[in-house]
Amino acid sequence: MKSKRYTQSSIIIIAAILLTGISCHEAATNATTEQNDTVVAKMTSDTSLPVTPSLQYEGFGAVTKGGKDKRVVHVTNLNATGPGSLYDAMGSSRTIVFDVAGIIKNFRWDGSGRNAVSHLTIDGSAAPSPGITLDNNNNGYCLTFEEGCHDIIVKNIRVRNAGEDGISVVGAYNMIFDHISVAGSGDGCLDISRGAHHVTVQWSLFGPGKKGWTGPMLIAFPPTKDISVHHNLFSSFGVGAGERNPFVHNATDYIPHEISYLMCDFTNNLVWNWGNSDGGYGYGSSADFGGTLQARNNFYQSNALPGNAIIKDHESKWSKVYASGNISGNKGADPNSVSNVSQPWVVDPVTMEDACTAARLVLAIAGPRPLDETDKAIINKIALTICPEIKIKESSRTQSGTEPAVNNKLLLSVGYDDDGDITTNEGPYNSLSTSIFKTGPGSFRSEVRQYADASPGSRSEISYSGLDPDEGVYEYDVYYENWKTFADGGHTIQWQPAGGGGAVLSLQNYGGKFVVVRSINGINSYGPGTGKPVTANKWYHLRWEIKWANNEKGYIKLYIDNKLYYSYTGVTTDSGGTPGWKLGQSRWPGSGNTLKETTVVYYDNVKILKK
User: Which residue has better confidence, 54 or 10?
Assistant: First the structure.
């Protein structure tokens, strides 16, 4: 089976299923037949693709799983309608992926009435470069989700040239918009209104619209509430009004409804250069007509009307604003002065940085990647001159939202909380579990099954490439499901020489016990003092501290549940290069040519740090 390669910033994660003794043809056949809920399946010759860092879903919309664990529908052409098109693929209880890349012209889809959908993911991240763009050609609304729509995720999609709203959410709920880009609309980029709730908009880009437009985002009308907007870029200056970044109001026919509940939590966004090129008012963010807005740690800067970073009650007297930690790139402007609420609202959690750090992260990460020319043009005009330069790490954000230890550089942090973290569900041996997990909704599941002609070295593992520091820390959580004594071992983590071949270091399970094995120049050394029994159905936290050296300067330390379990100083590798590593199982038959037992191991919260 051909491995898929995914990039996480400069990191490449290769999810590999290596089944010794089964031919590539047989493995590919098994993978296809096992996924009998996949429709319009299409094999592609090149599965390399650039994707954005897989960050966890946060905020009010994170309650949804979208189309997770539902059938997979493949879009196989760029037609506006018809078989194999995105329009034809739309529906409930599914994940839509793309086998093609480019612009879907004249696209329009109205999710209202009989077209209402639920438990749906539209995932553009699997498309080949340069990704997927929906071009509405000024034909009304491009993508609409109205009453009856719920539990929906839209990610890594661009929307261009909508005649009205690029994306409209009306009364829908439990939704996530992640790494999207909308520009060139006749009205809003993404408007959320009329009772919509539990919606997250994150890591996305919103650019200017057409002449006469108003601005990127309207959040309005009762009883709309619980909207999280975090880590996005709003750049609204253009030929239209250049405001609504966002505009939050709670009125019907302009009669304010005074409320105490929060409509929008606006956190860690970059709002750049609002205002109307034709004159007029113009502002950054606004609450009016009884709207409630919480604005935290956002960066605001504009050449036009710089004092209007956050405004309230421009046309009424009923709005409530809590503003804290916001900064302005315009000298003398204070976005927080507008605040008239003394205590913040309680919101669903969002990992929050200071305004400058968040702004730089947004520029480095937000939007579908690679950027198209529209998004490049917007980003290239931004200069955060008042913010200190910071180095964006290869993986700047972790799944847990925590930072690594001081003096260590985070190379990878994956919680396996999202389908984008790994792609190992091509066949029956590796998959993403939704029932066994340490934190969040999923874990990586490694399974080796009994089968008649099993040969030594049957594997179910993930190989990580380009993540191997000469000196560093490896951490993960591991769970052995219904574990039984297994006489002939099998690793749950191993490091292989730079040139390939057998493991130089591994953690085996001989007789159902943790045993550390070093293999230098073909000679195995079984760690003295190891042999701790493995308890079934229990999470363990493992931490390895390693320095690779072919002399006495190397070291290995293994901590299990934060207690030192194994320690060694001396030669740790028999090659000149840094060993690569794998996570998963490699099983040997107990006797004869059968495995006898099906073994399942779960992994979660993997972290690699370079010292």
Answer: 54
With b for 16 or more beta-carbon neighbours within 10 A and e for fewer, the 149-180 pattern comes to bbbbbbbbbbbbbbbbbbbbbbbbbbbbbbbb
- In degrees, rounded to 5, the angle at the alpha carbon of residue 326 between the alpha carbons of residues 320 and 329 is 130
Query: What is the DSSP code (8-state) at residue 363?
Result: H
The residue among 107, 233, 108, 145 whose CA lies nearest residue 181 is 233
Residue with tokens 């999280």: 228
First to last CA, the chain: 35
| C-alpha closest to that of 430 among 415, 449, 451, 445 | 445
Does residue 182 contact residue 189 with C-beta atoms inside 8 Å?
yes
The amino acid that residue 403 corresponds to is E
CA angle 292, 295, 299 (to 5 degrees): 150
The residues that are catalytic are 244
Q: Are 224 and 197 within 8 A, CB to CB?
A: yes
| Dihedral-angle region of residue 261 (phi above 0 means left; psi in -120 to 50 means alpha; beta otherwise) | beta
Predicted TM-score of the model (pTM):
0.61
Q: How far is CA 34 from the centre of its chain?
A: 26
Q: How confident is the model at residue 47 (pLDDT cuts 50, 70, 90)?
A: very low
CA–CA gap between residue 493 and residue 588 (Å, rounded)? 15
450 within 8 A of 598, measured Cβ to Cβ: yes
Averaged over 99-121, what is the pLDDT?
96
Q: In angstroms, rounded to a whole number, what is the distance separating the alpha carbons of residues 509 and 513?
A: 5
Task: Give residue 532's identity as a one-letter amino acid code.
Answer: K
Residue 2: half-sphere exposure toward Cβ, Cα within 13 Å: 8
Q: In the numeric block, which tokens belong to residue 276?
A: 């109307």
* Residue with token string 């297994």: 486
Q: Buried b vs exposed e over 53-90: b needs ≥16 C-beta within 10 Å?
A: bbbbbbbbbbbbbbbbbbebbbbbbbbbeeebbbebbb
